[in-house]
Amino acid sequence: MDGTTVSRRAFAKLVTAAGAGALGAGTAAAPATAAVDTWTTTGTTVSALSAFDDTMKSFMQARHIDAGQLAVTYQGRLVLARGYGNNSPMLIQPTSLFRVASLSKSLTAAALVRLAQDGKLSLGDPITKFLDLTPPAGQSADPRLAKVTLWRLLQHTGGWDRDLTAFDPVFKDRIIANALGVPMELTHADVIRFMSGQPLMHEPGSTVSYSNYGYLLAGRIVEKVSGLPYETYVKQKLLAPLGITRMGLGWTVSRHAGEVGYRSQYTGPTVLDNSGTVVDAPYGTFSMRIHDANGGWLASAVDLVRWATAFDTGSPVLNSTSTGRVFAVPNPTGVNADGWYYGLGWAVRPVTGGTGRNTWHTGSFAGTYSILVRTYQGMSWAAVFNQRDDESGLSYAPIDSALWTASRAVSTWPTHNLWSKYFA
Question: Which pLDDT does position 165 carry in this prediction?
Fold first, then answer.
């Protein structure tokens, strides 16, 4: 990939990075005393799909995860929708809401693609056509910003590189506030003004480097072009046509009705004000307001697999030209040595000689781990959890391969369809 090669194993690090940095800033908190084990399930039990239930139970219990969900579709039908509680203080329903972190990027990318579909913009437009990128006084903007097109923004080829700089601005609230002389909680405008004075690390279009900041900018372009708040546009143009009504942007401290609580071993200073108060990592060591377009959405697993249908043939949201754009190969960067590439809000792996594709994304915050997969065989699944770290020290990335294994254990797929149970 033009000097950038990332293996499938390393992909988890790449696309879960909406949460990278929040843990490192914190300190370990004492683990809670475990209660007597109580395992609860909600939703319809489907014996033919028991491998999925077994997988979720073993995964959650090994990591002491108290809340999880799974939804599975097959040939366009919703065949499994489950909530799982492992010593959970609340009953986890199939419709309970979870933060989904970087899975939000698929919505933001689709919003710009939909605006292009409606003739409101071109994906070849430079971001400077829509955004004021004036740097702080005494600093100069990188002239290469004019070469950052919407394509490049969404394909992570804009030229920013947090790995080279060890600086992801959506997690550096205090540094930005001090540099600008503004109070926390930061606004999007604060982050943009600060970053407009920072040089790009690469020529735009030359190198893939995962950029949460790029998607923060994409959300602002959605607002500028549509004339609507980012959340309102996504709900009206992308979610409503699919009957999705539960999804919304999460809050940093307060919870929506039906939203789970989040757990982490870690604590850190709040970024919601300048007090320095130490808080549990999921509740103030990062700002959900800042992360809206790159990682701010709440959803249930059934909402996520419903959202995945927006990219199917016949979608009421995106036409075939638009879906082709979403899954197009980055140009000139191309496909990396491991065979996959980042499209517009999705990772893409061509399969079966290029006639099919698997697409996926993961998400990670302190207090969140999520995954959404669309397969070329007509299956999809989404799993969400209310933590990403625990005293076991086990990785959460293996849920990917574990769910693939569960799918292969199904000998006969059920013929029922549960969509009507969860969507009007």
Answer: 87
